[in-house]
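Q: How do we represent a protein-ligand complex in a form that can be generated token by token?
A: Start from the inputs.
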Amino acid sequence: MFTIIVAENYEEVSHEASKLMRETLRSKENPVLGLAAGSTPLGLYEEMITDYILGNTSYRKVRTWNLDEYLGVPENDPHSRRSFMNEHLFEKIDIFRENTHIPRGDASDPEEECRRYEEELQKTVIDLQILGIGRDGHIGFNEPGTPFDALTHVTTLTEETRNDNARYFDGNPLLVPEKAITMGPASIMRARNIVIIATGEAKADAVYKMIKGPQKESCPASILQDHSHVTVITDPAAAARI
Ligand code: GLP
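Then emit the structure tokens for the protein with GLP bound:
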């Protein structure tokens, strides 16, 4: 069940997402947010920061869970998802760092880290999960073919994903890690509410397959067809096929 919002441009897309974020933050005493790295949610994060600066929102009671982290990348590495989230959100609001959860990409035993993360995650329920979407319909780092029932796991990144993420590694795909830890589709589906944001014509095919394509593991985002509270926020380019 999808609610679809087609906004005029990226700024309006981010504003629509921030309205749903504010609703969640005001309706819950101790909100739990699922967050995504990547460029798409940055406009939303900027609105969240503005709300804090203006004194409209405090994040002191908020806990967050990020979708994924590159494997083999220490937390303090500028290329890590931890560094990305610190820079683009956590350092600019009054959230307690210990309430922000991201898989440890430098864990000595990645499989154990997946079990630990999933176990901790299952002690709570995410009130609002923010998602972007890859051109191939991936969510988090769940690449095409990921079983829908997968929980937090180690994944091998496709060449396309590594190319798309090269912008975070000095433009060199060879520097993008080959593997990552990611919440699985089943981990994501536990969220009470999901907002998936997509902009640009490169995402139009993935958005179409997510909403109107057959539900199959070759398009990980198509699992969302089974979730009862998914809001898709796009611009006209990403909505071109729906
Ligand atoms: C990355 C991330 C996803 C993200 C997607 C799109 O691989 N693992 O969480 O949603 O690609 O990224 P962007 O929003 O930069 O287009």
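The chain has seven helices and ten strands. The radius of gyration is 17 Å.
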